[in-house]
């Protein structure tokens, strides 16, 4: 075969690949297909399994109570209430006698009553990443990790966003925020858990939902401020993400266009879901730093693994920079903060490193683990400790159910909902 023939074949296949890729980009300009690619909600990863039967994922009988929430626009969200193990053990006989399956009324279930009626119970509201359902991948192990720091007290409630799993509807940026607000309203009004006993946990795209949620609630006339925010494998915003993100870890989104900034910027204009997390997190911190009166403090933990090949850990650097910058009166460059971090970061040997920025109004932590990939890290002790640390940052308020200003949060902070 001649050199010319080989060249022609290579050119032919290169043309096919380039044409196919630009056809793919053309589909991305259509909102329906764009949402399918960004949220991957049609990829359940729990095929042939009933997500209302949690025992399939190793949970004990009735340790998980499945239930539904209804959004203001009448979309039904499927949810799990996961009971911490030590609390389950204390009431094991009662749970074994309780009827299993989907309860007609969640408020009549034993698990719910243990959450609602215990003034020392703590609650993590769990916002998962793209693709899959409540039972997919490393999510069930992560529920167990979350409660490990206080296995008698830390409950977890997770939802499938609209269009995911058994939930109705279809996802979008605004509607996922509505889903999260619905979950918070249920936690505060139905379960009666005040914000200082709630931690928001988000992973991957769930971090953007959590940041949007915190940003929205802190800007209300009666601001809502949770015990803490724990974000695992976040991204700064969609425009920064598209340059490196690979769908399912293999198919590049706009990565091949990264060497051509103007072309990349052109295609980014067609993306509807912007998820400007770095800007919203900065605005959240700025608002917290300048709130008057109630003395409430914020607590943010950003966690990422260096071997995450879905979302590069540099996105966490960007989020940390925007959050820290919001605490400074003067302009802080990314490079200047990186120099500061080199002086203040605590190295953890083979485990990675952590850096903390503290003000009178709150704490911002960035924890970079050496290993953990994109999802597996959710089940690691680094997450258990982050959740526990967030609750302990407000532990002084747990004894009497009041903020430092003396106002009952369970009543005052619900007004924003």
TrEMBL record:
Stretch list, region Disordered: 398-417
Organism, as annotated: Podospora fimiseda
Pfam families on file: Abhydrolase_6
One Gene Ontology term of the molecular function aspect: hydrolase activity
Transmembrane segments: 12-33
All copies of domain AB hydrolase-1, residue ranges: 124-279
Keywords in alphabetical order: Hydrolase, Membrane, Transmembrane, Transmembrane helix
Protein known as: Alpha/Beta hydrolase protein
Gene3D superfamilies per UniProt: alpha/beta hydrolase
InterPro entries assigned to the protein according to its UniProt record, in alphabetical order: AB_hydrolase_1, AB_hydrolase_fold
